[in-house]
Protein backbone atom coordinates (compact mmCIF):
# COMPACT_ATOMS: atom_id res chain seq x y z
CA UNK A 1 0.00 0.00 0.00
CA UNK A 2 2.89 2.37 0.63
CA UNK A 3 4.12 1.85 -2.95
CA UNK A 4 0.69 2.34 -4.54
CA UNK A 5 0.51 5.25 -6.92
CA UNK A 6 -2.48 6.43 -8.91
CA UNK A 7 -2.15 6.60 -12.69
CA UNK A 8 -4.49 7.76 -15.40
CA UNK A 9 -4.68 4.17 -16.64
CA UNK A 10 -6.00 3.11 -13.24
CA UNK A 11 -8.72 5.78 -13.49
CA UNK A 12 -9.63 4.67 -16.99
CA UNK A 13 -9.76 1.11 -15.70
CA UNK A 14 -12.27 2.21 -13.06
CA UNK A 15 -14.38 3.81 -15.78
CA UNK A 16 -14.23 0.59 -17.79
CA UNK A 17 -15.30 -1.36 -14.71
CA UNK A 18 -18.27 1.01 -14.35
CA UNK A 19 -19.17 0.33 -17.96
CA UNK A 20 -18.87 -3.45 -17.54
CA UNK A 21 -20.92 -3.30 -14.32
CA UNK A 22 -23.68 -1.56 -16.27
CA UNK A 23 -23.47 1.71 -14.35
CA UNK A 24 -24.56 4.91 -16.06
CA UNK A 25 -21.69 6.24 -18.15
CA UNK A 26 -22.51 9.94 -18.09
CA UNK A 27 -20.17 12.56 -16.69
CA UNK A 28 -22.49 13.68 -13.91
CA UNK A 29 -23.33 10.14 -12.80
CA UNK A 30 -19.77 8.79 -12.97
CA UNK A 31 -18.23 11.51 -10.79
CA UNK A 32 -19.95 10.50 -7.50
CA UNK A 33 -19.29 6.82 -8.19
CA UNK A 34 -15.62 7.49 -8.88
CA UNK A 35 -15.44 9.63 -5.73
CA UNK A 36 -17.05 6.87 -3.65
CA UNK A 37 -14.81 4.13 -5.04
CA UNK A 38 -11.59 6.09 -4.56
CA UNK A 39 -12.38 7.78 -1.24
CA UNK A 40 -14.50 5.24 0.63
CA UNK A 41 -13.59 1.90 -0.93
CA UNK A 42 -9.88 2.40 -1.62
CA UNK A 43 -9.14 5.10 0.95
CA UNK A 44 -7.27 7.23 -1.61
CA UNK A 45 -7.62 10.77 -2.89
CA UNK A 46 -10.38 11.03 -5.45
CA UNK A 47 -9.53 14.42 -6.97
CA UNK A 48 -7.15 13.20 -9.66
CA UNK A 49 -9.38 10.26 -10.56
CA UNK A 50 -12.41 12.53 -10.88
CA UNK A 51 -10.51 15.06 -12.99
CA UNK A 52 -9.30 12.21 -15.23
CA UNK A 53 -12.88 10.97 -15.61
CA UNK A 54 -13.93 14.51 -16.56
CA UNK A 55 -11.13 14.60 -19.14
CA UNK A 56 -12.24 11.21 -20.47
CA UNK A 57 -15.82 12.36 -20.96
CA UNK A 58 -14.76 15.66 -22.58
CA UNK A 59 -12.53 13.85 -25.07
CA UNK A 60 -15.20 11.20 -25.68
CA UNK A 61 -17.77 13.92 -26.42
CA UNK A 62 -15.38 15.55 -28.90
CA UNK A 63 -14.74 12.21 -30.59
CA UNK A 64 -18.47 11.54 -30.82
CA UNK A 65 -19.00 14.96 -32.42
CA UNK A 66 -16.18 14.31 -34.89
CA UNK A 67 -17.66 10.91 -35.77
CA UNK A 68 -21.05 12.51 -36.39
CA UNK A 69 -19.46 15.23 -38.51
CA UNK A 70 -17.51 12.67 -40.56
CA UNK A 71 -20.69 10.69 -41.20
CA UNK A 72 -22.47 13.86 -42.33
CA UNK A 73 -19.59 14.69 -44.68
CA UNK A 74 -19.63 11.14 -46.05
CA UNK A 75 -23.38 11.32 -46.69
CA UNK A 76 -23.00 14.72 -48.38
CA UNK A 77 -20.21 13.42 -50.62
CA UNK A 78 -22.24 10.36 -51.57
CA UNK A 79 -25.16 12.60 -52.54
CA UNK A 80 -22.87 14.75 -54.69
CA UNK A 81 -21.41 11.66 -56.34
CA UNK A 82 -24.92 10.34 -57.03
CA UNK A 83 -25.91 13.69 -58.59
CA UNK A 84 -22.81 13.66 -60.81
CA UNK A 85 -23.50 10.07 -61.90
CA UNK A 86 -27.12 10.96 -62.61
CA UNK A 87 -26.03 13.92 -64.74
CA UNK A 88 -23.59 11.70 -66.65
CA UNK A 89 -26.31 9.10 -67.19
CA UNK A 90 -28.72 11.75 -68.50
CA UNK A 91 -26.03 13.06 -70.86
CA UNK A 92 -25.33 9.53 -72.08
CA UNK A 93 -29.04 8.92 -72.67
CA UNK A 94 -29.36 12.18 -74.64
CA UNK A 95 -26.29 11.28 -76.69
CA UNK A 96 -27.72 7.84 -77.41
CA UNK A 97 -31.06 9.36 -78.45
CA UNK A 98 -29.29 11.80 -80.75
CA UNK A 99 -27.39 8.93 -82.42
CA UNK A 100 -30.54 6.85 -82.70
CA UNK A 101 -32.54 9.56 -84.47
CA UNK A 102 -32.44 9.05 -88.20
CA UNK A 103 -30.68 11.75 -90.14
CA UNK A 104 -33.02 13.87 -92.27
CA UNK A 105 -33.03 12.70 -95.88
CA UNK A 106 -32.52 15.45 -98.48
Overview of the molecule:
By secondary structure, the chain is mainly α. It has three helices and no strands. The protein is rod-shaped and about 105 Å long. Helix content is 78%, strand content 0%. The protein has helices at residues 8-21, 27-41, 47-100. The longest helix has 54 residues, at 47-100.
Total strands? 0
Structural class comes to mainly alpha
Cα distance, first to last residue?
105 Å
Uncertain spans: none
Number of helices: 3
Mean pLDDT: 89
Major β-sheet profile? none
Beta-strand proportion: under 5%
Order of helices and strands: HHH
* Rounded Rg: 29 Å
Shape: rod-shaped
Give me the secondary-structure topology.
Blueprint: H1 8-21, H2 27-41, H3 47-100
Task: Note the main attributes of this structure.
rod-shaped, mainly alpha, 3 helices, 106 residues
